[in-house]
Amino acid sequence: QSDLHAAVPVYEELPGWKADLSQITETHELPAAAEAYLAFLEEQVGVPVTLVGVGPGREQFVHRNA
Fold it and tell me: Domain limits at 41?
């Protein structure tokens, strides 16, 4: 069998947020839980998160200095 058959998933629970992010234009406006989530992602993948989508529109993102 392959190594994947022996893999054990790691499950992490992180706090969420209910705030509407669609009007956010600056990273300091992100909820603390969203910032914590982004920091977790950066730690896991080893690269900075520099663009954050805050809605479905093409212009709905904020630049983040990670």
Answer: 3-63
The Cα–Cα gap between 60 and 24 comes to 8
CATH of the domain at 15: 3.90.170.10
**Tokens 């200095």, residue located:** 65
The Cα–Cα gap between 61 and 29 comes to 12
Under 8 Å between Cβ of 47 and 9: no
Domain count, the chain: 1
* Residue 9: alpha-carbon gap to chain centroid: 20
Mean pLDDT of 11-17: 95
Q: What is the pTM of this model?
A: 0.81
